[in-house]
């Protein structure tokens, strides 16, 4: 059994006005699990409940209903945050500090010993590519550079769970590729990553599974490669056919008869962006639409 790092059960957040009247349901009965070592993408347009979900997991908000667990502990327990690294969309860093001072400050918050703190800060500054700018104060940094030092801050405590909100925001194409490679490297080191992003190509490049939210409701959940797979067509662009070993054997025989070799056999994929826009359009057209897990019979 895979180890569950994050779990929500009917997690709900309702915002109310001064008189207690309901203003908005930001999150409605969210059920999902995130396993150790996976990269999980949380997607949705603005106001869909992504940030609310993150704040509930960090214990920055209290739920109106349901439960959230991180490392098997209730999300409201702040002790579990010692094993979490968080990069918000807008980093709230002290701009009068330089990179070294910033990481030293956050390392002190985690009670990291001085020698370990200094060594880890130097490694992270090198990792995020700021070695030549480590003495500059942060107010002189570009947005992309602030994003890099923000990531280093999120990793100073060597967290087991890394939460990234728009990690490629402000980065140029080279920086974006670097960020995606770093996220994949964190996975190789056994870290669990939860990321939100509006850049769907980035999500498709790195995420194992995704959840799509709209209007506070979970609309889709599953593996990226399965969700973007087009089950109605084959790579040979034939319609009305389904995959099976017999078909593969016959096709391979025909292709080899004509001097070729069957290299790929399967469903073509659409893009995550196309899937995302379709889910949002369907959600608008069908108010109250919610994702329901397939029944055992459907799985068969």
Automatic annotation (TrEMBL):
<keyword id="KW-0547">Nucleotide-binding</keyword>
<dbReference type="InterPro" id="IPR003593">
    <property type="entry name" value="AAA+_ATPase"/>
</dbReference>
<dbReference type="GO" id="GO:0005524">
    <property type="term" value="F:ATP binding"/>
</dbReference>
<keyword id="KW-0067">ATP-binding</keyword>
<dbReference type="Pfam" id="PF00005">
    <property type="entry name" value="ABC_tran"/>
</dbReference>
<dbReference type="InterPro" id="IPR027417">
    <property type="entry name" value="P-loop_NTPase"/>
</dbReference>
<keyword id="KW-0813">Transport</keyword>
<feature type="domain" description="ABC transporter">
    <location>
        <begin position="6"/>
        <end position="240"/>
    </location>
</feature>
<dbReference type="InterPro" id="IPR017871">
    <property type="entry name" value="ABC_transporter-like_CS"/>
</dbReference>
<dbReference type="InterPro" id="IPR051782">
    <property type="entry name" value="ABC_Transporter_VariousFunc"/>
</dbReference>
<dbReference type="GO" id="GO:0016887">
    <property type="term" value="F:ATP hydrolysis activity"/>
</dbReference>
<dbReference type="InterPro" id="IPR003439">
    <property type="entry name" value="ABC_transporter-like_ATP-bd"/>
</dbReference>
<protein>
    <submittedName>
        <fullName>ABC transporter ATP-binding protein</fullName>
    </submittedName>
</protein>
